[in-house]
Structure prediction request, 1324 residues.
Amino acid sequence: MVGIAVLGAGRIGKIHAANVAANPNARLIAVADPYASAAQALAGALGADAMTDCEAAIDRDDVDAIVIGTPTNTHIQLMMRAVRQGKAVLCEKPIDLDLLKSQAAAEEIESLKGRVMLAFNRRFETTFAEMRAAIDAGDIGEVRQVIISSRDPGLAPEDYIKHSGGIFRDMTIHDLDIGRWLLGEEPVQLTAIGSRLIDPAMMEKYDDYDTAMVQMQTASGKQCHINNCRQAVYGYDQRIEVFGSKGMLQMDNLRPTTIRRWSAEVTDAREPLLNFFLERYQQAYKSELDAFVGALVDGKPLPVTPNDGLQALRLAEAAVESVRTGRAVAL
Amino acid sequence: MVGIAVLGAGRIGKIHAANVAANPNARLIAVADPYASAAQALAGALGADAMTDCEAAIDRDDVDAIVIGTPTNTHIQLMMRAVRQGKAVLCEKPIDLDLLKSQAAAEEIESLKGRVMLAFNRRFETTFAEMRAAIDAGDIGEVRQVIISSRDPGLAPEDYIKHSGGIFRDMTIHDLDIGRWLLGEEPVQLTAIGSRLIDPAMMEKYDDYDTAMVQMQTASGKQCHINNCRQAVYGYDQRIEVFGSKGMLQMDNLRPTTIRRWSAEVTDAREPLLNFFLERYQQAYKSELDAFVGALVDGKPLPVTPNDGLQALRLAEAAVESVRTGRAVAL
Amino acid sequence: MVGIAVLGAGRIGKIHAANVAANPNARLIAVADPYASAAQALAGALGADAMTDCEAAIDRDDVDAIVIGTPTNTHIQLMMRAVRQGKAVLCEKPIDLDLLKSQAAAEEIESLKGRVMLAFNRRFETTFAEMRAAIDAGDIGEVRQVIISSRDPGLAPEDYIKHSGGIFRDMTIHDLDIGRWLLGEEPVQLTAIGSRLIDPAMMEKYDDYDTAMVQMQTASGKQCHINNCRQAVYGYDQRIEVFGSKGMLQMDNLRPTTIRRWSAEVTDAREPLLNFFLERYQQAYKSELDAFVGALVDGKPLPVTPNDGLQALRLAEAAVESVRTGRAVAL
Amino acid sequence: MVGIAVLGAGRIGKIHAANVAANPNARLIAVADPYASAAQALAGALGADAMTDCEAAIDRDDVDAIVIGTPTNTHIQLMMRAVRQGKAVLCEKPIDLDLLKSQAAAEEIESLKGRVMLAFNRRFETTFAEMRAAIDAGDIGEVRQVIISSRDPGLAPEDYIKHSGGIFRDMTIHDLDIGRWLLGEEPVQLTAIGSRLIDPAMMEKYDDYDTAMVQMQTASGKQCHINNCRQAVYGYDQRIEVFGSKGMLQMDNLRPTTIRRWSAEVTDAREPLLNFFLERYQQAYKSELDAFVGALVDGKPLPVTPNDGLQALRLAEAAVESVRTGRAVAL
Prediction:
């Protein structure tokens, strides 16, 4: 039985806490959040202790592992405190918005043989996982091209955009991780383009983009394309295509029902997509937490490492640079 | 080179005449229609002789075969005249609306070893033909159930309904033929239901139905369901499913383009279906004519026989009786 | 808070018990099953009392409602005991395999104003529910035809077939209920055909069928077709089409992932279907239990009544009679 | 009636000649090809004069327009001869593999007010045309991203590759044209990557690539991605997605039939795609020729100009440079 404290009682903390509570090999010891009422509401509903001091939660003897769902700028401090005490960590991405700080943290974790798992939850979604397994099984031969379409349902509010780190570090980073993971090799060259098509004034203000494309290539010549947009009227669009020497795999979106509608205007019409990531990746969050607990129980390596977070951030940085310079970036 | 006269210069005659003209092994000798202007327009456009006397067209020495696209009540007379002269016939279905007359004609054709092909054109449509071939190849094992959905885009005008012979003899008969053909065995029992849901007054007036279902079974237990409606707002609906011991085949509708539309209201939406049978079965009419000419040139048996027309009409009669009596009809 | 005892600790009891435990307005008081070890295992895992006497579980003061998941021949006795004590009941279908006994029970329940809900769980599946809601909203105008395809993944073992009551009372009954529910009117005529195509010897032995079709019609002329088979190699096939005057709704199957595979042999290929009803209707079982508890908490009528069970059984009886006599059955 | 000579009796010339013959407003005067037997076979079958001298065919008084389907290095000479005589030209792409020569030709055509149409036939395919029309109609609001997938069924033989001008000038050029056309604005920046994944030795030998991606952007920020591969085991893959502010349009591939196959291994599986461009764009070639003749008859501007050919070639050149330098290319 793994004793777990969830740090952060916001929307992501709520999901993790519920998944901890539902895992038969884990026990939710505490929920910690500086906002006492949020911590109490969540901890109370799940029969755990409510705390306002995250560090104190880490230090508890009955806490073997922590799940970090706090703001990004607190990640490193909390993560390293746990690592230094030999406790396992599941940390929301990114490690930090700053590449050098992230790198330093990753190095210290490695030197301490710390057990830290980065929460790239999509890897645990059933269809993503099945695609990776099908590639490993040789179903499509050698991977040649990975095409990732990833569009948000609606533009986030200004307050979110302001602190997001920009589209590449905040949104594209998930697709960069999936791209690396499906390519099965490190990209060596990357080009990105960014546009301001939805709210040019706000994007200008924060030196950000709302619409982007990334193109990258590995040393052996495998290629990956990513397209992003901060707003798609038809819902949260998440599709992937992996094209290989012996075939192709395509991942479609999820919708609430399987209904197809026919009328005088349309045939075969489906409904808009699941609205956003909490619904779309509900199962992924659960499987991710279960994989974390399972690896701890079995003493096996954690399935996503700080290095994965570092590499994704490095690619995001290259995308930022590529847009700024109008050049391809060698990695 | 097969010399062919097309009898009837209406919409179906036009299609047949154009297909004759395009067939490299056939020569369109004449188009005959009591309406001189219709005959002249069609014959002129295709470089054939225009005639107003169908019988005289049959009798011409340079005519080896005739294609009958005249009103149903003239079919037997024209067909038998050609048969007695040893000429081949491609005749629009049905032979006649009267089963006994049809039977007598079929018997005489057989005794004269006449070469007559009934125009059940759907059998020649690419997808229908491929389904039959896949069944023959054993792809789905033993056929267990055939499900046929067949709905017209809009209710025909009263003048058509009045002379149609009723939904079962006019519309369902195509599906009854396809059902027999895909089952690969003769049905031994049939039940039908008919409803008046679109224009009850008109249907009542002609003792007809606008919405129908048929259920039938062969001696070995293979089953077939047919559903029909005289009006589908989304277009001419033609779908088939053949379920077998090792798998299933499904035939989808055709649409003008492959576009899928996504908006705030719908995703994956396709356009309405091809409007009606002339568009939907355009290729089938051509392949049917080519099969007719091909069999004549090669001296091979014609691929659809008068007996096929007779059996389909027998099933249609049984459907009429089943609706009238509220009983299953043994065949 | 509704105190609930689950009677029966088999596979269906396990599902109900877990759903009771997960419902915030219900408390799982006891699990009762003559097999002590089964009761103990299930009750223990969910923190409830294990009992071997179902009647004693009903009689407990802290039990407000029972969920019956015991063998069919015990349903009426347990249900009526609870009703007589004023306790609410969610009972697996059917009430009983015997129509007269079921009718008597339904009448007594009505005279006692008993609160009994029949577990036609499919009505609570998201897509089914959305289809009914779309019809109610007028999205497809007047319903004309309902087409239900429902095929099991594999033939049940002989021991199951022997006690099943036959394909119509055991399997088709679900589709008959859905047919009635989507038609929105009572059928007045029904015809059925049954075949022995998978295991003729076993089917002969139990006077049963493995492949069946049903066709029925309401007084206003709405039509319904059902096709069933005890074995589909591609998985548990559950599809529905509702065709109306203004459009059509189609329900597709569920699959584990959204992957489409392309190779030299196939394109756009999806994986086999979810294997069977426990996986396919997992969400439906939960929503059904939640609807039961919700109605009790809100003091609203239960959403599926004993009369619904009775009507479905009546239709199943008519199907049996139709196959036996080869006739349409007036209802 | 437009008198037309078709220059070149190869596979593309055959298609054009048949389409000329079938067009009611055009007359096929001559087929010219240095290979006398090829010219004779084609001209004979369609009732036209066979010639071996292409220039003499252009010079004929009864020839109003020419269709050029000869090798690329003869395009400019033949085209300009016709233009100088005031005759209309439909010329297979590209004008020339050399950008400067192409530019000079385009300028001369403009100064002579020559009527030249470049054969970017895809623009005339029903679905492509409908997508452009839907964009024009405002169906998806402002275009944001265009995603083009375009993969050949199999690697062309060495002799073809050797003379092709490389993947970007030979294959991608079609997608670059479609990208420009759907974006509705000129790209101002382009990046390309090229890989040698299928036959590295042959690709190395000709300094060519078999797998490529292109990413481009217009001044207003609209984005376009193209992916190409010289070999896709599942057939000739031609898909497009246009994502806009109010929705999205997707174009699917064409297949020979609409059959979907279900088995123990797969469900919903479709067959491999139409093999290659002659089958896939059969209708497009016909509509293109009809549009050419129609514009001549109506005295309207030709729908694809030499400038379109020039711009596509300029983009292809930029792609070559981008791969060579590893940089984004400003246009």
User: Anything to note?
Assistant: The radius of gyration of chain C is 20 Å.
